[in-house]
Amino acid sequence: MTVRLGDEAPNFTAETSEGTINFHEWLGDSWGVLFSHPRDYTPVCTTELGVTAKLKSEFDRRNVKVIALSVDPLDSHAGWAKDIEETQGAAVNFPMIADPDKTVANLYDMIHPNASDTTTVRSVFIVGADKKIKLTLTYPASTGRNFLEILRVIDSLQLTAKHSVATPANWQDGDDVIIVPAVSDEDAKEKFPKGFTAVKPYLRITPQPNK
Ligand code: BEZ
Question: In terms of pTM, does the model score above 0.85?
């Protein structure tokens, strides 16, 4: 199944390292990051899960729950989690889905047969509090993801959900933002009391509203 931006995140019930989880119930009112890795006991994935564990407080303060997935079974996840703690200096502090029959992987189109017909690619899905898909990413097995970039996108998404702004290239939290074209100059004067600069009529820059 292809999962696209704006779609409702497909729901599932799965066995995880933290017990059986119904995805939508587990999310509750939180945002979510669902990410897959090709196999347990692989080097790049080991670093990715360690980094994600270390960033837990950053995900928490954005009201985001993280959940990982591979097609390996639960006993494999348990053994590998010990290695992650030992080698990365952080215990895995989020559920790891065991998906040996590939139910969730197929639901989210995480298996790309021309890359591998047996393992998942590195997919990332950001799910909003409304259960809608806000971002999809697909990385190859050999490239570890940048989880600071995932946090940056969440910052942008959460900002744009509250204010009529978009974020420019390489934006970081605190930088100036762009007023969306749907807002007239007249309305912008009211909505953005810090003022704005019209570099072009379609490119209007304003300080980040919530700072
Ligand atoms: C890894 O996760 O480390 C990995 C997986 C497949 C190919 C290469 C690296």
Answer: yes
What is the DSSP-derived secondary structure letter of residue 3?
-
Neighbours of 26 (CB within 10 A): 18
- Residue 167 to residue 100: CA distance in whole angstroms: 39
Q: Mind listing the pLDDT tens digit for each residue in 160-208?
A: 999 999 999 999 999 999 999 999 999 999 999 999 999 999 999 999 9
Q: Taking the CA of residue 154 as centre, how many other CA atoms within 13 Å lie in the half-sphere pointing to its CB? A: 24
Buried b (16+ CB within 10 A) or exposed e, 133-142: bbbbbebebe
Pocket of ligand 1 (CB under 6 A): 38, 42-45, 141-142
Q: What is the mean pLDDT of residues 96-116?
A: 97
Residue of 45, 53, 66, 121 with catalytic role: 45
pLDDT in tens, 26-58: 999 999 999 999 999 999 999 999 999 999 999
45 classed as catalytic: yes
Distances in Å between the Cα of 133 and the Cα atoms of 11, 28, 92 are 12, 15, 25
